[in-house]
Design goal:
Distance between the termini: 20 Å
Number of strands: 7
CATH architecture: Sandwich
Number of helices: 1
Order of helices and strands: HEEEEEEE
Helix content: under 10%
Radius of gyration: 14 Å
CATH class: Mainly Beta
Strand order of the largest sheet: 4-3-6-7
CATH topology: Immunoglobulin-like
Structural class: mainly beta
Amino acid sequence: MIRRIHVLGGLMVVAVLLLAFSGVATAAKGGAGGGGKTGGGSTSGSSSLTLAMVTDSNGNGLPNWGDQVTFNVSTTATTTPHVSVQCSQSGVLVYTTQTGYYAGYPWPWTQTMTLESGAWTGGAADCTASLYYFSGSKTVTLGTLGFHVDA
């Protein structure tokens, strides 16, 4: 069970679960290690997604377990971009969250993500952030950003 999942309403949770299990997150590949930019896919407009440290406990400038991060999001494809993050240890999902990155988003505090959960009590993990938006009943992925979290 994951302790730190931000519940953003039934529709958001269902949409993210569909995103995670339908393979849509791989529709637009790109990005690099922590802080790299990504964008593209077959959508119109340009997009970028970069990792930003909020709390850096050991001061090394890189994400570590227990640190807090957020994302710098820019896109011309939509006015309501969202980011989901999933982290795995040895292929086992240990962290998942999602939030909106736009002015009217009703839960802005969820834009600060703490890299830990009940299932992730320590150690390194590999994470993927996906930049996406909703278009009717579809989820459109604008890009992904893979990053490593050290122990």
